[in-house]
Amino acid sequence: MRRTELIMGMPITVVIPDRERQDSLPGTVKFPTTESAALAVFDYFRGIDEQFSPYKPESETCRIDCGELAPGSASPEMREVLFLSEETQKLTGGYFDVWFQGRFDPSGLVKGWAITHAAQILEDDGFISFCIEAGGDIEVRGANEEAKPWVIGLRSPFDPEKLTHRLLLQNRGIATSGTYIRGEHIYNPRTGERANEIASLSVIGPNVFEADRLATAVFAMGASGIEFMARLPEFDACMIGWDDVATFTSGFAGHLVP
After folding, report:
1. Which domain holds residue 246?
2. Of the candidates 103, 110, 108, which has an alpha carbon nearest to the alpha carbon of residue 219?
3. pLDDT tens sequence across 74-118
4. How many structural domains compose the chain?
5. Neighbours of 69 (CB within 10 A)
6. What letter would DSSP give residue 119?
7. Are 126 and 28 contacting, i.e. CB atoms less than 8 angstroms apart?
8. What is the pTM of this model?
9. The CATH number of the domain where 221 resides is what?
10. Per-residue pLDDT tens digits for 217-257
């Protein structure tokens, strides 16, 4: 089963191999079919959009941004995102900041966080193999329809219709930051300038939340970001410069399709 819907201003795709369901589950199965499970994931993302969108006046994000809602009075989900944002800021030495120039926008963390939570929805109901993609960021579990690792293509930062690499992933997440889909939308919080020193940065991590929050921050670091990623043993990364040269961390090549 493969289904795509446009939510949060981007295509979100859920793929669940029809055969993949645990034989014995405690209690009652909440989603009896792959289709109903996918619909639950899409409903979850719609709720995230209502809660976290920086463009909807009634969202918690906008209410915090305009001072109508105090962060300490926000929902448990928002408080979790605020905690993780602060943690990410410390981890990256200030290259991640949801309060950039006095405006509040947690978008650089929320997408990956939401994908990982959506994956938990499927996992809790017994699905052991699936792929969730939202705007190019991906979480995969188990195996594909052919009982093999998932094949993930990385788009060229210069031509989104072309792939730079094809990867084999299982039980991992991958996120890419760059300027070729949304333009120059990432800023260096340290300087206040747009981050455009490199063309793209892709990060493979234990889940897409961890990969996404690092990809956003490390892209802002520019060319030195790949050195930062090389010091993190649970992650692999690929940086592509404006000269179209790719630089890998030591473990990234192990994910490439032979």
Report:
1. 2-255
2. 108
3. 999 999 999 999 999 999 999 999 998 899 999 999 999 999 999
4. 1
5. 18
6. H
7. no
8. 0.92
9. 3.10.520.10
10. 999 999 999 999 999 999 999 999 999 999 999 999 999 99
